[in-house]
Design goal:
Layout (H helix, E strand, L loop, with lengths): L1 H21 L6 E2 L5 E2 L1 H17 L4 E4 L3 E3 L5 E9 L1 H5 L6 E8 L2 E9 L4 E6 L4 E6 L4 E7 L1
Parallel strand pairs: 3-5
Antiparallel strand pairs: 1-2, 3-4, 5-6, 6-7, 7-8, 8-9, 9-10
Helix pairs in contact: 1-2
């Protein structure tokens, strides 16, 4: 089952990353906690929630922008639609889309996608961490931790 969770999280993160790349540069404003945010934060999170919700309607969701849904679920997706909003707004390549999955409160999977670098970091509990780089002519995966 982790394979299905990982492939869905990867698809959601890369789709959100493509959305973010199409929306650069983005005007920034500050939320109620004086944290920088953009319209793209919300749009990215909504896309991720749609994709994860369609695949796993019984799962909970905890998003940085839109809050929590179904918190008592066995599985909960944790979403940061733009990790590094200042970097995103400034056009740097060090922002990411981050998605994690918890089972009964324990993290079992994580995906971090850096769209400007086209790098995908992924990890599943007990199976190591990987960096996948997919350029137009090169596709390779490097184990980071086993």
């Amino acid at each position: 089952m982790n394979e299905l969770y990982l492939s869905t999280a990867t698809a959601a993160a890369t789709a959100a990353g493509k959305l973010l790349m199409q929306s650069m540069p983005a005007p920034v404003h500050h939320d109620q906690f004086d944290q920088p945010t953009t319209e793209q934060d919300v749009a990215s999170e909504m896309l991720i929630i749609k994709m994860l919700g369609e695949a796993f309607p019984e799962h909970g969701l905890l998003g940085e922008e839109l809050g929590a849904k179904n918190q008592q679920a066995e599985y909960t997706w944790i979403i940061d639609p733009i990790d590094g909003t200042n970097n995103y707004v400034d056009g740097r390549d060090t922002f990411s889309v981050s998605i994690g999955l918890a089972h009964h409160g324990e993290i079992i999977l994580g995906v971090v996608y850096l769209p400007r670098r086209n790098e995908l970091f992924s990890a599943t509990a007990g199976h190591g961490a990987f960096l996948t780089v997919d350029y137009e002519t090169v596709d390779y995966e490097t184990p980071l931790i086993n």
